[in-house]
Amino acid sequence: MTEHHEDSHTTTLDPRFFDGTGTLTPQESAPGLSVGTVHFDAACRNHWHTHPVAQILVVTRGLGLYQEQGEAARLLQPGDIVTIGKDVNHWHGACANHSMEHVAVTLKDVDGNAVTWGRSVSDEEYEAANATIDEHFTTSPTTNARAMDTRVTAGHDRLGTFAPEFAHLNDDILFGEVWSRQEQLSARDRSLVTVISLISSGILDSSLRFHLQTAKNNGITRQEIAEAVTHAAFYVGWPKAWAAFTMAKEIWD
Asked: Which residues, at least 6 apart from 152, have a Cβ–Cβ distance to it below 8 Å?
């Protein structure tokens, strides 16, 4: 991977120690400390590693994973704080379908060392860790389903080189972070809000089809979508409702 600069300080993650893509933005810190903001794109994670003194992680965005050797993986969400002790072998990174960002504060030893890198996290280890996320979204009382079954990459695929910031906002922020805020509003409810918003705006193309399918995946039943569109028809217009029903019938039948 060729290193590039997002600004005067931000660099891409070193492929010797990370699998996947992301960025590192170092922050000013006191002697004996290494402080930086790490952004992990979906499915990006670092290698197994240890710290000679200690490290603190503060999760600021998205959904991620943290795992210590011999322990089950832990789900990381915005606001979570992880304290990592001396010589604890561990790894952390983004979930398979969500980006994640955290601030890392790492104490250095007397020789200025902050980390000792080990091997890559195997695909089997990473898949097992992501199973923790599946279980969380299945059993959490605040949600009936996962927000998205697969990572959304439409922005990067179609506009990545032409409008990279828009692509980032679409894939990583809207679908990677906003949709993941399950405690505030479940994926099921977000789907219903999105479908009705699209219909009312007259957006009756592939975007609506995608969100109707997502609504079904998130637990909206045939009866519920029919009632929701019928109710909305009185406010958004009969022709829009007809178009939405035609598409919904194909998905639910």
From this structure: 170, 171, 175, 176
Beta-strand runs (E) in the chain: 11-12, 18-19, 22-27, 33-40, 45-46, 49-50, 54-62, 64-68, 74-76, 81-84, 90-94, 100-107, 116-117
At 50-94, the pLDDT tens digits run: 999 999 999 988 889 999 999 999 999 888 999 999 999 999 999
Q: If we measure between CA atoms, which residue out of 36, 65, 32 comes closest to residue 48?
A: 65
For the chain, give the number of residues.
253
**Rounded to a whole number, what is the distance in angstroms from the first to the last CA of the chain?**
46
The confidence band for 145, taking pLDDT boundaries of 50, 70 and 90, is very low
- Which residue do the tokens 């955290």 mark? 102
Q: What percent of the chain has pLDDT over 90?
A: 60
Four-CA torsion 194, 199, 202, 208, nearest 10 degrees: 60
